[in-house]
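Lab meeting minutes (informal)
Scribe: AK
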Amino acid sequence: MSSSPKNSYAFSIAIIGMLFFIFGFVTWLNGTLIPFLKLACDLKTDAEAFLVTFAFYMAYFFLAIPSSFILKFTGFKKGMAWGLVVMAVGALIFIPAAHTRVFGFFLTGLFVQGMGLSLLQTASNPYISIIGPIESAAQRISIMGICNKVAGGISPLVLSAIVLQGASEIEMQVNAATDPAIRMQLLDSLAQRVIWPYGIMTVVLLILAGMILLSPLPEIETASEHEQETKAGSKSSILQFPHLLLGVVCIFVYVGAEVMAGDVIGPYGKSLGISLDETKNFTSYTLFAMVIGYVVGIFTIPRYIRQETALRLSALVGLAFSLLILLTSGYTSVMFIALLGLANALMWPAIFPLAIDGLGKFTKIGSALLIMGIAGGAIIPQGYAALAEQLGPQGGFVASLVPCYLFILYYAVSGHRVGKNK
């Protein structure tokens, strides 16, 4: 006997939830990899270390549109499986990278993982938006966000416990070593700590890819294409949807702000004199704050507030917390960065469905453009590194974040409606 539509719907949600858990786990390892690779690869500046996020998130920029074309041939289900396979290849690259301790090799592994995630997200984000009513898409994406951010909160704790155990002591030993051979031995030993975690990750990702292929996950028509054809009207190009193009910019600045709060919080704390043994866990605090925000979203959207209202409130809270980062100091300032996770939580769930609404047959390419916007996670931290040299860590943080939240506020108020009535 075939399962009921309700059971099939719940099963599909569960599978996509598992995928969001996986790419949350992988994505938020960067917060640990930044201080780890700065030490293990003997990098001199934070700007060099932030190439971790640059390599990872720039993959989205280069691979998002090719991913949309791949999905035209594979469909959503096979596309998700192939995304997991590519991620496994990226994890595998970490093993020879650890043996050679070449920073560029690590960056290559991160870029390849970003390639796989680009394909996975280009498939899974519109899938979860489309599988039910567009009005409750933010609620479904909030559920996915909990899966993503719970994994993101756990992953830095797990990896830092393995690769950054006794980090402050190792850092002192490396700095105190006068014999180059001893110093090299310490760094080699540290770098090789990533071998077995990433080896296990490779195997797990390949197993999951097989499970996805064998699962009864249904293939669906893109964005209810036939139903939305009247919304798309006679438009012949994706460039004729200004609310989507503004949504791409909104995703760009949102992801930049999210990466600042999640991955840059550790180096920020260290710049204030907090030890590496403490700062290595700061990413998890931001991610757990995001989980709280997602829970709020599940119970309030769309029952009590609309998606655009949630986005507007989130942007205002983000602006307030950004100013408080500047007006406070020490651990209090770090706390307000972590609380940005609460402000950021409902942004992706609101921006994505608002941006793809009414695209009809252009939904796949529209989704790909939005995924390209994730490159904000590569660019904005680099901007912070430059600003921090001129304005100090606090001034650089605020100067990086305030323009992001102002644009998000604009998109929430009116940007998501631009061109929709034409």
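Next up, CB showed the second protein from the same session:
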Amino acid sequence: MTDAAPPVADVDGVAVPTGHLIGGAWVASPTTFESRSPLDWDEMLLANVARGDEVTADAAVAAAVQGFRVWGHYSPVERAEVMHRLADLIEANNEEIARVECLDMGFLEESMKLRLVGRGAANFRLYADLVVEHEDRRWDAKDMDNHVLRMPAGPAVVITPWNAPFMLSTWKLAPALASGNTVIHKPAEWSPLTAALLAELAVEAGFPPGSYNLVQGIGSEIGAALVSDARVRRITFTGSVPTARVIGKAAAENIVPFTAELGGKNPLVVFADADIGAAAKKAAWQYDDSGQVCLSGTRLLVEESVRDEFLERFHAETDAMVIGDSRNTDTDIAPLAHPVHRDRVDGFVQRARDNGDVIVRGGHKMPDSLHYEPTLIEPKSNDSEVVQSEIFGPVLTFQTFADEAEAIELANSTDYGLSAIVYTGSRERAERMGVEIRAGLVWVNTFLVRDLTAPFGGCGISGIGREGGEHALDFHADLKTVMILDNTTS
């Protein structure tokens, strides 16, 4: 780190801090990395962001340890007051946050304004209220008064992904802070800027120094130093399976509880008794934001008898979608977030082509941009790479099934288990599929509608642990049982 104050970048009229927030102060690093816009990669350099290292990580954890002595002793009501102030500030800065995230990650600006920034504020309000409303469990047994308490655990490292970075940061930071933990937030280096805006608003909201820390940098550098620090008492991560394996080993070394949300290869199952038009429209909308959504139903599984009708409707819906600039309100399909990711997505498609899988539509990079054609692939077998591996782009696969038993078999045929979408006109079938599909979340006849207090997480390699509501608060706490003999006098 350096003593010099870090510069502030002007991102389309929004002042964005480019340094680290450590112990309540903004600090710089001697080296930086570039944040470029996927809307025009070659021409739009948004900021040079501080590139943290082991020294930065050490300072941030030390600040969180010191801050815990204060924030960890705030009452739930006092913590909630600060968190509600932050939620108010998020709502007041909706347009600025949306504008920066659109440029930094490529996310549709209108979607940010209408949904995701507000969801970020809602996350802080939810956990602020839950921690105040929580009632400790009490019961009598064996002549003892038993009382279960939640204790703040200590400093928590929060590592967030490059897709939907603002909303997913709030989703992870809010329960950690509501629990009384201090945080060290490490956002992804591909989309770091709205994390800086959020940290700036946290300072304005009144979080005490050291309770809320932000470090920028490359995951393999500063991230590795953070998760291996023995002073850290919780680690929560959203990202890739390979990175989770590395973090999990570091967490195990220090006996630190670790939760991970790692994406999926989610089925979208359509039965012949479903509203085929609604199912086809929802399937086409899995291309929204170029498929860079972990919950997307990327494996289309359709009952054989409605194959042709479904495909006709699906193609019509996809043809109507607009590929364009994420700042335009009529754009439906955004660019991919980074050239490296675009080439990774294209690699999957080209290998599928070489493998003999049928490219039903799309399958090419679009010229002079980071857009990729909405692509549908009919694999030659269920073992094809495009069926079994997460692509995280606008690439869907299409398979048919003969009956419900085969639909279940195909739905459960990957190592992932994050979510599933089922379209059927039968309530009985809906209940059966909800039971039989192995996933952390199953939607029937809808998608992306969720109660934020419900558990969220995956099975298999889709993750470890559960987030959401009381589940997240329990993860971020150390539970303690106090047992007092009933004859103890006051």
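CB comment: The two ends are 54 Å apart (CA to CA).
No objections, moving on.
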